[in-house]
Amino acid sequence: MSKELVISYEDNKVKIVILEDGRIQELHEDEIGNNFTVGDIILGKIKKLAPSLNACFVNIGYEKDAFLHYHDLGPQIKSSLKYIKGVSCGKINSPRLNSFSFEEDIDKDGVIQDILSPNQEILVQITKEPISTKGPRISSEISLAGRYLVLIPFASKTSISRNISTTEEKDRLRKIGDQIRPTGFGLIIRTVAEGKSVEELQSDLRYLLNKWNTICFRNIKKGKPPVKILGELDKASSILRDNFNGDFVSITCDDEDLVQEIKDYLHIIAPEKSKIVKYYDSHIPIFEYYNIDKQIKQLFGKHVNIYQSKGAYLIIEHTEALHVIDVNSGNITANQKSQEDAALHVNKLAAAEIARQLRLRDLGGIIVIDFIDLTSSQHKKELYEFFKEVMKNDKAKHKILPPSKFGLVQLTRQRVRPQKQVNTTEDNPNPNGKIESPIVLLDRIQEHIFNFLASPKEKKIYLHVHPFVAAYLTKGLKSIRNMWFLKYKKWVKVIPRDSFKYLEFQIQNDKKEVLYMFSN
């Protein structure tokens, strides 16, 4: 299955889409200048303790204090606090931990007031972004993620991903990890390290140790809390780090600087693949060209069609406490031996689509799914196992329960970012119930476009409009656009935009500069 990464930079936002055979599998947004991203490492200051919660609140520079529970301190918190204090006051001048005197691990059932106190400096990492009225969730157990390894300061063991296939490979990787692991650091060997050589793992380790050096000398010494010590990779690079494999056939981006950043990062993790990175330069927006805008509008509504199901669809409802997904049948008897077989077939298609929707919308919390009723216990078990299989690609932690007596499947899914919401409806252009005649819209377009067609400065004109308007302007030999050409001897490139409202349009020049825009 071929994968493509499509990246769009617009309005100070980076939008990233992973496509599989042309269909959206994941959608991410990264706002430039966002200082509170999962993975960011921050030197904070403890604001106050909350003994009743066995937790504390930490000032990390966000408008609301971050929440740190005792269980998120990590067993080596005393060593971390000692090291940070030593670096800050100049007593410790080396990032290496082989000569550092470690403190004993804390009791897993202890209380937070025995470990921390107000105004104390602490190094923390964001594990959950601010959501709604809640501040960020943080941990003081720091980890630095690389392509194949995760480096954990102040730890002392090598752990192996449970998803590595064979015991022999786990043993091989554990031996390598024990050999290369620096004193004072722990290692987690990731799933993508399977089959990799010692040299590849050592190269990744050097990359992570350089990051640790950056934390110690450049930032902790100079930093005055609250201050960001190390930012997580930009979203595009972090997606490459966590998802990139041989299935990717192209990476396309419409921003030259971002293209160069991606190439530089690929030179680190997969130098042989840097040639698949391409710069997209066209007046047709990149998401329009790859049919992404249209798919987004189809996928984020309340009703979602199930791929290859001949009419079956999902209804996705959101409540304060949970998310509810209802599977509705289409022509389920087609090409099936019985009603039961047909229901199982549609349920499997729905399960695959639901797994995709959970990733796309980043739904978290409690999710209840009402599949089409099945009478056979064997079929219910088969559906349950199939659903667990298609959910394996979901990197968010989740737990799926077997079907209940009422046939409902319940699951919980970790939420580390705000739920992604895309508005698939449009406002009424006129709330009073009347809108302008279509001829008025045409007059408005012509009024402004004629000014630029008549100008000798503009050699080419590009008109971005809703697809219905584009069809109206370009249909037939005697189309309105052809009449413009005969009058002004300049060709207007009409670009349909699925993301535009009916009355919205833009006029651009050859340099992609917006000459005029209208949005009601």
Automatic annotation (TrEMBL):
One of its GO terms (molecular function) is hydrolase activity. Residues 37-141 form the S1 motif domain. Keywords: Hydrolase, Magnesium, Metal-binding, RNA-binding. It holds the Pfam family RNase_E_G. It comes from the Bacteria. Signal peptide: none annotated. Gene3D superfamilies: Nucleic acid-binding proteins (2.40.50.140). InterPro entries: NA-bd_OB-fold, RNA-bd_AU-1/RNase_E/G, RNase_E/G, S1_domain. GO terms for cellular component: cytoplasm. One of its GO terms (biological process) is rRNA processing. Its cofactor is Mg(2+). NCBIfam families: RNaseEG. This is Ribonuclease E/G. The lineage of its organism: Bacteria, Pseudomonadati, Bacteroidota, Flavobacteriia, Flavobacteriales.
